[in-house]
Structures
1.
Amino acid sequence: MSKVLVIGAGGVGSVAVHKMAMNSNIFSDITLASRRIEKCDATAESVKARTGVTIATAQVDADDIDATAALIARVQPKLVVNLALPYQDLAIMEACLKTGVHYMDTANYEPRDEAKFEYHWQWAYQDRFREAGLTALLGSGFDPGVTSVFATYLKKHYLDTIETLDILDCNGGDHGQHFATNFNPEINIREVTAVARHWENGAWVETPPLSHKQSFDFEQVGVKNMYLMYHEELESLKTHLPEIRRIRFWMTFGDAYLKHLEVLQNVGMTRIDPVLYEGKEIIPLQFLKAVLPEPASLGVTTKGKTNIGDIATGTKDGVQKTFYIWNVCDHEEAYAETGNQAVSYTTGVPAMIGAAMLLTGAWGGAGVFNMEQFDPDPFMAMLNEHGLPWQVKELDAPLAF
Ligand code: NDP
């Protein structure tokens, strides 16, 4: 029975508080705070209608450490779940340290003016969280999050060591729009247009954005093109599973998405540096976000499924083996349950589960942790129980590419 404060009332925040309300034995008291209180109130209404649970709402600018600390002091939660944007991570961690409260998020800190996706800013908080006796759990979404736990689950139960790991993220959903992103457009486009990087033989290998393509037959989705990308869990997994020789991340994109993105990039609309417009500085990517559909609005029209998983090759009792572990999530089912499409659902459910791990004491400790540093079993059990069932199978051979 614990109080939780969730910050960020977007698609992910909405799914997380719906699922928390469905588990009121763990989350006895829920407050949802965000920049615009009307978004929190709309989510609270939906939670009440779907689950019968009343949640509290509040307005906060989470960039303002003192304002967030004052909110935490008023609400008195045991844990703050940060589902705002990566820009707010450090400010919310500071507010947690100020008030003596545990912290959790789903995406690593990003400075507004650089697309870096690096953990060092948050890992630098290690000593302060340890000395305060508090836990900071980083990246409890799907990727990072479930994909990291999948890796440790394979290592615990199927392989003695992992030599190569490939994370495959497929969204086979169709939202019926010419161009839209399934989570925050600014973060999504920064990620997709970044230089691709993977870890191989002790070094990062860089390739131009979206320059490496492979096709893969995803169960319940079909054959899709996927592209080599950088993704933040590569850094934490290669740190915490140091035996991994090669680790890569792949994401599927349709041709229409890529064509729109190419044009937007060519005309400068994805830039994150300020440009002067009618005497005022604007960031083109932020303006683009303002004209694109809100990810939360896509749920009503999105059909199809996501399929995200890990393929690991390693040895078991001296024999080389390859295992594939994955989850399939249906957009329409996710929408029927929570009013949000599967990309928000596949992030919001693990956010609820990560929070449950900390609040029940299944995971914990003083310091800053990534998902793969904990026992995967209780988290994996909750995935099966709360809408993200997974499967494992042995493949005949390692990936051929
Ligand atoms: P949205 O943009 O839909 O929601 C973000 C919410 O945070 C909005 O309600 C926004 O308010 C609020 N917010 C923004 N700035 C502030 C601030 N300064 N103070 C308070 N609230 C603020 O994003 P998503 O829900 O799609 O994503 C949420 C997080 O989840 C992001 O960090 C994203 O990177 C991460 N994510 C992680 C994934 C994973 O698998 N690990 C996958 C997908 C997303 P307003 O509505 O007023 O703009």
2.
Amino acid sequence: MTNNFKNLHILTHPLIQHKLTLMRDKNRSAPRFRQLMREIALLMGYEVTRHLPTISHEVETPLARLQATMIEDEKVAVVPILRAGLVMADGLMDLLPTARIGHIGLYRDHETKRPVEYMVKVPLTHSRTFILVDPMLATGYSAVYAVDILNQRGIEDHNILFLSLVAAPEGVKVFSEAHPNVRVYTAALDEKLDENAYIVPGLGDAGDRLFGTE
Ligand code: URA
């Protein structure tokens, strides 16, 4: 699928694509599916953190003192959209162990396909960059809603990154129109949504496949 979206970055590293292909297989077990998602999130994290601000930090090696580069990772907040975002968040936390962590609990109303909020906890005091995480950017409604929640707490779009594994063009369009200044990262821009708002070919229900539920 051609990427015509200015704010969408498709991460095509062969390792990411290889692991995503393994995940797409409907016979992949839940533990392996979880492990692959965590590994992909870590690999995507390498790209997503490329523009994080750095500071100079004094460090003493066994031979000398020097000023060296560090990320202020405690100023980064990783915010999974529950529940499917949790495993990707774990992969990012492997890279940024002292990042803050928030949670946005949304479920999709089956009739309206719109998100319904049931829990929000966002670390506001120290955080500067917010990485929102949800593996499936499908209709885009949850993604827009989650960014709206951050905006209402004073966090501006240019300080928010959205990390997904698979995106549908319909969802990216909705999201980009609502929040054109939020950078979106994904491993794949798939073909379309089906009539139940599932991404095709997609992965199926990511939450169910992660946690072995139905
Ligand atoms: N949520 C999922 O888990 N899968 C989809 O395809 C769309 C939304």
